[in-house]
Amino acid sequence: MKLSEQLNKSIVSYANLPALFVDNKCITYKQLADYAENINTSAISEAEQVGILSYRDTHYYSAVLACALDSRTFIPLGVKLPIARLISIIGQSNLKYVLYSKKYLSISQQLKKALPDRIFVCLDDIANKGTASAKPLHARSLSNVAYVLFTSGSTGAPKGVPISVTNLGSYLDTMCESLPLSNTDKVSQVFDPTFDLSMHDIFVTWLQGACLYVVPEAAIFAPGKFIKQHGLTVWFSVPSTASIMAKLGMLKNGAYPSLRVSQFCGEPLPRALALKWQKAAPNSKVINLYGPTEATIACSKYEFDCNDDSDSSYIPLGKAFKNMSFDLDAQGELLIAGPQVFSGYLNDNDKTEQCLIKTNNITHYRSGDLVKRDAQGVFHYISRIDDQVKIQGYRVELSEVNTLAQNFLSNPLVQTIATPIQQPQSLTLFICNPADIESEQALIEYLKQQLPIYMVPKKIIWIDSMPLNSNGKIDKSALHTMTEK
Questions:
Q1: Are 95 and 50 in contact (CB under 8 A)?
Q2: Domain span at residue 445?
């Protein structure tokens, strides 16, 4: 059954039940579907794909539902991203239509000024029209791409990852089977729309008639009160969120008895943190999920056992989903195969050829993750084989920051590192040159105009010479030592 058909079935079956709790109000499946219908019969009715310039509000979720029901590709446009990056995303994806919430009118006006040939449609205006009257539909192709997300790229520009309807459908079939929900479940939603884990929250919840509880922005990193107040039953976040909660004293024993499932993804999950969470949510399974965006959200899982006497500092990646398969190359890089693996980057054959390889007529995605497989067939994460890191779950290519800084300064001796090494929280940029405060301030302002805020270095260190290792490459260990002084 197609995703659109499955969603329609949920809408009919759970029409008067809550589908969404956001901004202190509940919205039923029928209300959400009515708004989605308004969107689909509006000015975008002929569009095969649309950008959504909105953020975790009724408008955003309704627009996502509208696209899924009408086989239309959607591209979340991060409202926190710099204008230059949004322009790049719209240009790369050849977007003609952009839906926006009125609260982001200023951003839409800046984009329209830079891209005058695009059509911008205000979601608030659509909502205020009431129930839509049937509008003659012009023939258009149904898109086989569910959504496109843009991740950090190594060349100074974001790269587009199209996820097909087949990719997403395979993931959802597996996940709904392994994570059955009832129409009384209350599921957390903390992720930014540009983060693929948010797709899990939305579709796994709605396909099973549960309610999506959008954690307010002010409570994103301190959600303990929200979990207890609303009796959430399913939690999903990056480990960093749990780590912050622990530091704030929010993981006291028995704090969250309503939780029955707790999932973490996007970063390595420390064993000590998983144990703290298990004690805080004693009735909950604690599950570690793993998967790159290119393999559709997640493709392996491991359920934490607090009685496990392993001496490993981190929870394993686990085993591949039954519809997926893992293999290792000679260097230990994890190769991923199966129906969730995407078909290639948007308009970038070179990058696609680098990451998709065929062995025995099977296409594998080169994950870039160095892993090991134990005697039980369980996979464990070791490190990256390139300079990609995760900051609060977001992928960051350090070379993208390097490229932008090098070009701006006309100085090739620039190196970015992520600190601390084990669980990076921020970036530090080293520049080999005499200190120049004016250049430093200008560089930071430039990077803020080009990069998401989590990719802008928090600290700049000027050095007289760049440390090199025995191979003549920049010695990143030495740079890390400098940050500790």
A1: yes
A2: 388-483
